[in-house]
Design brief:
The structure is a homodimer of 336-residue chains.
Chain A lengths: L1 E3 L3 E3 L4 E10 L1 H4 L9 E2 L10 H19 L9 E6 L5 H10 L2 E4 L6 H14 L6 E7 L1 H8 L15 E2 L2 E9 L4 E6 L14 H20 L8 E4 L3 H14 L8 E3 H4 L11 E2 L1 H17 L5 E9 L3 H5 L6 E9 L5
Parallel strand pairs in A: 3-4, 5-6, 5-7, 8-13, 11-12, 11-14
Antiparallel strand pairs in A: 1-2, 2-10, 3-9, 7-9, 10-15, 14-15
Helix pairs in contact in A: 2-3, 6-7
GO molecular function, one term (chains A, B): acyltransferase activity
Organism (chains A, B): Kyrpidia spormannii
Keywords (chains A, B): Membrane, Transmembrane, Transmembrane helix
């Protein structure tokens, strides 16, 4: 098929998710999706001296798990595409250094998971590589320290804030079926002028809606064509807003739209409006959603990687928080 | 051709650099390459209140120039791929927001220019888009403030340090000839254990050499097949080191290896060992090198985007500085 419409590419090759590796921290391990994650940490330092190094451990473990499940070694991985929330995406830089593969660093904040999945599939589509590993990671204490305040300060947050997920999710792509990458819709930056860095879901929601609508228009589809539309980290405030925006554009039924940030914690876990972070979409999409497709619950799922493209500096200088969303449609072929 | 060897992809489509847009600051405007840059600023604030916003102005102006030369409007640009040195690549996020195109954020530090060029060509190869704009930017005062100390402190630097280039360089790719993207070699992270953040050239040199050697081996070529091998920002210390490493591997003649960081300033300009930064390769490659190819001076040029993958935090935590290098071979077909 190739390019369809303005923003969508339909893959001609069969590009499947062969294995995934998903590692999470304590609060995620206590949440409703724990059984879908491969490794649960109760030590938030993961045996490291700093939060930043703990985050690297998460990503390296997720890489190892994805390789081990496929009975592959580091030398068998030609390319890693990924990123994270740390300044200069150092978590991924160092994990890619340990891996030893070719490496393309990317950044779209919490939408990095899906940008990586889309670009990985593009690299396989052209035949540049026959196998790619891609993923994203975040650590709540590393993110708090960088974006807000060190956790030890005990600064209070508003109830509409989100908790950065501690976790890494990685997918190993190979020629194959299930679930396979059917199409990718590349997002535009959408800036609604919102400026509250605690309310990232609302800053991301218009971008999520723009990309979902573009995806459906490009392919001539409706939400009914998907068993699930899974946004990355709108959390409860942003998801409600996104559904209102979709319904305002006549795009229904929005019950099919769910959000990783809403799903990953129970409401009584004290995670405010829900999860956020590059690791949020990574662990829920590669842990839970891929599993649900393999179990036959969903035949086609639209993964929507939402990102808030601010920095602590841009917020302090009074800038708005632009949002972006890249989408990838996964499909299970046949009646497997 | 498709994939050749382990790390290289040879493009089947004709993907050419149609126009470029290059904007620089004061010291670059006083340097030996000034006449190859489209716009020279003498106000380091570019009319903005902060260095970070000045950096955005540089990038937006470079985008505008590349579009204007091609008589295109923002609406004609389907996709921008790029990044910068700021935390969370906010410069590029905001410029991409103004542009309004689809946007893929990337990061490989000072190697971002060439990662962007390679990925842009991959997106065109598969037919996902028929036109891409790609580029990179840095601003010396924004970078000093973020990576080292605010310039106003007057902290002294060792003579082997480098000066971050103030400048943005953008290329507009379309189906066409000159110069066209012939091949891309995707780099691996190379960590030599160096830890001095002032000596980025030495941290990058082994990565540059690894990618140059991989490129030549994959294609069965020698340095003689290139009129010029242009590294991004090794500067004088790193370039000398890289040439020693190449000669140690029997890869000669290394007179053909030049470096954007060495070329952009005269030795008497007080820029230490030379230029660095994502803008360094962007302005020299898209300003000077593309011009020299069009003038017929070089038929084939290997652009080597070198990056040091550290952050201020990783350096303070005692980590080494891993390097990476992505390479793109440009060629002028025929005797145009």
């Amino acid at each position: 098929m190739g390019r369809v419409g303005h923003q969508t590419y339909v893959f001609e090759r069969q590009i499947g998710i062969r294995t995934t590796g998903v590692v999470v921290g304590q609060k995620e391990a206590e949440g409703p999706l724990a059984k879908y994650f491969d490794r649960l940490h109760d030590d938030m330092r993961m045996g490291q001296k700093t939060w930043e190094k703990a985050e690297r451990t998460l990503l390296k473990e997720a890489m190892d798990l994805a390789m081990r499940k496929a009975q592959l070694e580091k030398e068998d991985i030609p390319l890693y595409i990924g990123g994270d929330l740390m300044d200069q995406i150092t978590t991924t830089n160092f994990a890619a250094s340990s891996l030893g593969s070719m490496y393309l660093g990317i950044y779209s904040a919490c939408g990095t998971t899906v940008e990586g999945l889309a670009l990985s599939a593009m690299m396989m589509e052209s035949g540049a590589v026959d196998r790619v590993m891609t993923g994203a990671v975040s650590h709540t204490y590393a993110a708090e320290k960088l974006y807000r305040f060190p956790n030890e300060y005990g600064v209070q947050k508003p109830p509409y804030a989100q908790r950065t997920v501690t976790g890494a999710g990685v997918a190993l792509l190979e020629p194959g079926t299930g679930p396979r990458v059917e199409a990718a819709t590349f997002g535009r930056v959408v800036d609604s002028g919102l400026k509250d860095p605690f309310d990232m879901g609302s800053a991301e929601a218009p971008a999520a809606v723009a990309t979902i609508v573009a995806h459906l228009q490009d392919l001539g589809r409706s939400l009914d064509d998907y068993g699930l539309i899974l946004t990355g980290d709108l959390a409860r405030v942003g998801l409600t807003f996104a559904k209102q925006l979709l319904e305002g554009q006549g795009v229904t039924p929005t019950e099919r739209v769910e959000d990783c940030g809403v799903m990953i914690y129970r409401e009584d876990q004290g995670a405010f409006a829900g999860g956020s972070g590059a690791g949020c979409s990574a662990v829920v999409m590669y842990g839970w959603a891929v599993n649900q497709m393999r179990q036959g619950r969903y035949r086609r799922v639209l993964l929507c990687g939402t990102g808030a493209l601010h920095s602590p500096t841009s917020v302090k200088q009074g800038d708005s928080i632009p949002g972006i969303c890249h989408a990838v449609s996964l499909v299970m072929d046949g009646d497997r």
